[in-house]
Amino acid sequence: MGIPAPRYRPNTPMVTIRSITVSPPLINTACAWASDEPQLAALLDCPHTGAVTTRTVTLGGFTEDASHTVTPTPTFSPYPLNSSHKVAFFKDSLTSINSVRLFPTPLFSYVGPGGWIRTLLNRTPNTSKPFIISITESHPTDLRLMLNAIQGLRATHRRDRASRIAIELNTSCPNIPTSPPASYDPAGPALAALLDVLADAFWADPSLTIGMKLPPYVVSTQIEDVVRTIGAYSRVDPESGVSVNPIAFLTCTNTLGNSLVFADQVEGATGEFALSAGVGGLAGEAMHALALGNVYAFSKMLAESEDSALREIVIIGAGGVTSPEAVARMHRAGAKVVGSATLLGKLGVAAFELLGNAVDSAS
Ligand SMILES: Cc1cc2nc3c(=O)[nH]c(=O)nc-3n(C[C@H](O)[C@H](O)[C@H](O)COP(=O)(O)O)c2cc1C
Predict the structure, then answer these.
(1) Which of 55, 89, 91, 299 has a CA-to-CA distance to 116 between 20 and 30 Å?
(2) Which 3 state secondary structure label does DSSP give 339?
(3) What was the pLDDT predicted at 64?
(4) What sequence ranges are listed for the domain Dihydroorotate dehydrogenase catalytic (predicted)?
(5) Ligand 1 site residues, Cβ closer than 6 angstroms
(6) What is the distance between the alpha carbons of residues 279 and 260, in angstroms, rounded to a whole number?
């Protein structure tokens, strides 16, 4: 079967996801180049991004060992090439490999008093550009505390900025050996326990925009399991008869874990492997077809669902978006919003000007 006609115009200038609007529908996805305040400010100020996604944080943060320290990048110069042997770019392809773990800095740095997102929201009262705060925790109790903290920030800005914060639960980072990503077992109890917490937060405040960052699945039954698992959380409003689901968007996909790249394949690496850790998460052009396949499969399955709430879920397509043509392909596969990380690491925010110019000519 061929790819069906898009349900939207590829160059739609604005996409609404529950209570946020993304305009233009081009964003950075969570990554090491969206960590601290200067990086987030550059993405916020960039006219070619419609939202800013943060790097994934945990409730309390953690201490990184020296071999896993990410060199800070106060400005968007190209990432210091493999200076910490955690990120490397291929020599002859816009492909990256990384063993970066989560942001060691706690959620508090984003949303606490004086937190970077709080500061940036206050600095830009006249824009509706939202932040998508990427979070993760394996323990439901900690996840609940994170949601409470984010809701605290939303409450502070409720009158005019409630629609400027969304939450993306990252259940798909492949780089944490002791904590297998819950989304790789989409019908399992670990993911359900986290979804229970998200659903509670949503039913307490249905204006909360919640999404999930998913891994690149290689088996179609996994995708069916994800849709079935999420679908179990839909509720029909007794008055309107409308079905509602706590999940407003799915970001497809995260990196492809357990990938091995040798030093001579990448820029600036010494030793045997591109990463000191050996294996890591593959991103960029080398995984584009897999990312497109996931976007297409999820879009199709959701569009064909009998549950109108599932048909409303927006797909954010990511994985190998390094050119105008790739943006167009993501839209053709069913993504309403398109995201990029590897190209951001390579070019800085200029990446979005390149991609943003693309949509008209490529569609
Ligand atoms: C260096 C690096 C760090 C990343 N960190 C995160 C992260 O903290 N959370 C997350 O959900 N995804 C993370 N990702 C995955 C990206 O958001 C994205 O899903 C993936 O790289 C595919 O997009 P791309 O091909 O444009 O890079 C990271 C990717 C890279 C390259």
Answers:
(1) 89
(2) strand
(3) 63
(4) 131-353
(5) 29-32, 55-56, 87, 96, 98, 100, 102, 134, 170, 173, 213, 254-255, 283-284, 318-321, 340-342, 345
(6) 5
Q: How many A from CA of 214 to the centre of ligand 1?
A: 11
Alpha-carbon distance of 362 to 340, in angstroms, equals: 17
pLDDT of 358 > 60? The answer is: no
What proportion of the chain, given as a percentage, has pLDDT over 90? 77
Q: What is the pLDDT of residues 62-80, one digit of tens each?
A: 776 544 444 433 334 444 4
Q: Return the residue whose CA atom lies nearest to atom 14 of ligand 1.
A: 31
Q: Please report the domains of the chain, with CATH numbers, ordered by start residue.
A: 15-65+101-260+285-362 (3.20.20.70)
Q: What are phi and psi of 284, to 5 degrees?
A: 90, -160
Rounded distance from Cα 1 to ligand 1 centre (Å): 30
6 confidence band (pLDDT: 50, 70, 90): very low
pLDDT at 277: 87
For a ligand 1 pocket test, name from 31, 89, 98, 288 the mutation site with the most ligand atoms within 8 angstroms of its C-beta. Answer: 31
How many angstroms does the Cα of residue 46 sit away from the middle of ligand 1? 19
Size of the chain in residues: 363
Q: How far apart are CA 134 and CA 157, in angstroms?
A: 19
Confidence class of residue 162 from pLDDT cuts 50, 70 and 90?
low
Atom from ligand 1 closest to the CA of residue 320: 25
| Mean residue pLDDT across the chain | 89
User: Is the pLDDT confidence value at 11 over 60?
Assistant: no
Nearest CA to ligand 1 atom 31: 342
Burial 109-138 (b: 16+ CB within 10 A, else e): bbbeeebbbbebbeeeeeebbbbbbbbbbb
Structure tokens at 308: 């109108």
Identify which of 85, 255, 338, 346 to mutate to test ligand 1's pocket (most ligand atoms within 8 A of the CB).
255
